[in-house]
Amino acid sequence: MKFRSKFERKVYDLSIKGKIKGAKYEPIRIPFTVCRHYKPDWVLPNGVVVEIKGRFTAADRSKHLAIKQRHPAVDIRFVFQYDNTLSKQSTTRYSDWCEKHGFLYAFKSIPKEWTIGPNKKVVINENI
Predict the structure, then answer these.
(1) Burial of 127 (C-beta count, 10 Å sphere; 0-12/13-18/19+)
(2) 3-class secondary structure, 49
(3) Under 8 Å CB-to-CB from 91, ≥6 apart: which residues?
(4) Quick one: pLDDT band at residue 55, thresholds 50, 70, 90?
(5) Which of 100, 108, 97 has the alpha carbon at shortest distance from 50?
(6) Helix runs in 1-128, H state only
(7) Element (H or E) spanning 43, and its range?
(8) Contact of 39 with 67, CB cutoff 8 Å
(9) What is the distance between the alpha carbons of residues 48 and 75, in angstroms, rounded to a whole number?
């Protein structure tokens, strides 16, 4: 049997092996959700949400995908300092990630065209 850690192996050897019949190692997956809140850097009068990013970490990317999944009507856009790669090992740039996941982005400053449009309130459905 293969374990994820030496400690799991040790517990198995000391407590389970030959002592607890029918015990199964990692036989099921239990989904869970962690409820968090996001405070965007800016909300423009037209309802566009703007997030300013120097570094765009894996945690940031996961967070924004979760937000987009839960609140698809919220228009979140990114302003990056540079078009860096996602990591030292990756050739994927911040812009590539945004295009893949349907986020608009810019560099250095908020484009004027992002400020144009009817003023609308950002509506968050808390009951989802």
Answers:
(1) exposed
(2) strand
(3) 85
(4) very high
(5) 108
(6) 6-11, 58-70, 94-101
(7) strand 42-43
(8) no
(9) 5
What are 34's two structure tokens? Answer: 């962690």
The tokens for 38 are: 């996001």
pLDDT digits (tens, 9 = 90+) for 19-48: 888 898 989 999 888 889 999 999 999 999
Identify the CA nearest to 64 among candidates 49, 84, 54, 43.
49
The model's pTM is 0.76
Strands of the 42-43 sheet, one edge to the other = 42-43, 49-53, 76-80, 104-107
The identity of residue 109, as a single letter, is S
**Coil, strand or helix: which one is 85?**
strand
Q: Is 1 within 8 Å of 12 (Cβ atoms)?
A: yes
Q: Closest Cα to residue 42, out of 116, 115, 117, 128?
A: 115
As separate numbers, helices (DSSP H) first and strands (DSSP E) second, the chain gives 3, 4
pLDDT tens digit string along 87-99? 999 999 999 999 9
Residue among 67, 53, 55, 59 nearest 101 (CA): 67
